[in-house]
Amino acid sequence: MTAAALPTPPPALPTEHEAKLARESSRLLAASIGRGDSARVKVVEGNQEIDVPVSALRMLVDILAQMAEGNAVTIVPYHAELTTQQAADFLIVSRPHLVNLLEHNKLSYRKVGSHRRILFKDLVEYQQRSRVERKKALDELAGQAQELGLGY
Fold it and tell me: In 3D, which of 97, 95, 121, 96 has the Cα closest to residue 108?
């Protein structure tokens, strides 16, 4: 597997034991993260001390917190190129709907032979734009409902 590819099988859900361990380690790690750019981590097995970026430790806390909730976690590099199926899975839409978004220039992509590839960063940006547009539409509907005295 290359660094830019998503794993083919879905990530495994944590076991009950792993979730419990993740909950405790997440709490302890979050409490020990300092304010600097890096932190020194001591690995007891192997007896090593390692300087780690604090941003990476915060990501690890987030990963552990998700595992504690029983969620599977996948890490995708920001500049990874995804297939249309991977992109559809990320957005939780059907592949035909995603292709429609591509064909209507709602999302940028490039062709590799006859296959489309979408940058993960473009998916994240589309997702953020879409959330803003949905919130605006909901706010407008709520305003109209108040003006019409619909009582909700």
Answer: 121
Answer yes or no: are the C-beta atoms of 13 and 71 closer than 8 Å.
yes
Lateral strand order in the sheet of 81-82: 81-82, 115-119, 110-112
pTM comes to 0.67
Structure tokens, 20: 């419990």
Q: What is the pLDDT of residues 93-145, one digit of tens each?
A: 999 999 999 999 999 999 999 999 999 999 999 999 999 999 999 999 999 98
Fold that domain 16-68 belongs to in CATH: CBS domain Like (3.90.1280)
3-state DSSP call for residue 115?
strand
Rounded CA gap, 61 and 26, in Å? 5
How far apart CA 79 and CA 33 sit, in angstroms, is 27
Closest CA to 109 of 126, 92, 93: 126
Question: Domains of the chain: which residue ranges?
Answer: 16-68, 81-147
